[in-house]
Design goal:
By secondary structure, the chain is mainly alpha-helical. It has helices spanning about 5-10, 60-80, 85-115. It has one domain (about 5-125). The chain is built from three helices and no strands. Helix 2 (about 60-80) packs antiparallel against helix 3. The longest helix is centred in the last third of the chain and has 31 residues, at about 85-115. The structure holds zinc ion (ZN). Zinc ion (ZN) binds near residues 18 and 45.
Amino acid sequence: MFQKGAKLYGIFKNKCPQCHNGDFFIESNMFTFKNVLKIHERCSNCHLKYMIEPSFFYGAMYITYALTIAVAFVISLMGYLMGLSFIGVLIFISIILTILSPLSLRLSRLIYINIFVHFDKSKSVDN
Ligand SMILES: [Zn+2]
């Protein structure tokens, strides 16, 4: 499931969707806020252009929305089970979503490009 060739490998390891070798984001630490969404222009291995067309990653906002709703649902269930009030649950959700926002933004971009670009074993280099 998390081996080269699987979509989840490229998504969770921050790798090029086509070869799974080159890094997708410039900064591997997602909490470096200055460069959190900066991506390489091209893959260092297979030279795939990551920005497939102008404004390509605007579509990733729909995936961010879905991820945010899913996390908010799970957190609200946790807050309900912990016995928090409605306002407490809202504050809890706000804090957790703020902390997780770099993760959801990056994951959504990786998921989005993996929808359009498929793994090509001939362009991968086995390490
Ligand atoms: Zn590549």
